[in-house]
Amino acid sequence: MFLPARTEDGVVVREVVARLQRARAVLVLTGSGVSAESGLPTFRGAGGLWRHHRVEELASPEGFERDPRLVWTWYNQRIAAHAKALPNAAHSALARLEERISDFTLATQNVDSLHLRAGSADPVELHGNLRHARCSGCGVRRELDAFGLPLDEIEHHCGGRMRPGVVWFGEPLPQEAWERARRAAQRAEVILVVGTSAVVYPAAALATQYARSAYVVEINPEATPISERVDSRLRGAASQELDAIARAVA
Fold first, then answer.
1. 53 catalytic residue (yes or no)
2. What is the per-residue pLDDT across 207-220, written as a single tens digit (0 to 9) for each?
3. Annotated catalytic residue: which of 82, 91, 115, 127?
4. Is the whole-model pTM more than 0.90?
């Protein structure tokens, strides 16, 4: 069994591996910390435009109404960064775990599509994705390439505006995605919470409020608001910890 160098992590990994090998249903919830190892900044530390504008100016219906060109300028930068980034060992490890566990649900707060590119078959994208834009008026969808949406094409002929296909602050999660994740949490025997700050709800509640009797493991270099409510904690990088787990489960 391949284990992390730190002894305490090795003990936890053994327990996690044993539980995963017995589990009939597993839920994994991932956040921006997973993609940070692919060179993508975490959502709240994105730099660039974030240095000069509040989050709500760039990721809210109100901000989009006020300045859609600013919002799309920032999202186009994110889309370009996503296109250049490659899945890392954490993404790959989760794709391998999915192959070994029949009832495996990967729910992600990320919108970068790296789980898909790593081979995860059907991730639940709780916050949407940046592979498409949709019209705020008629709802028509438009696929996006690595350059995003040209700023002169924001206004749609129906009178609406093309907006990123993501969930903004103040908006509900997509109902189908949320129900899939909620049901997975309720039946899970093991839940892995990886690289998420655990401050964005309702996603953060999956491991605490909706889990019935699951063994919950947090994988994050830093403590979060749910750290004291989980069963085990791994404080290493997601790529290191997940790769060790996936190798041992296999």
1. no
2. 999 998 999 999 99
3. 127
4. yes
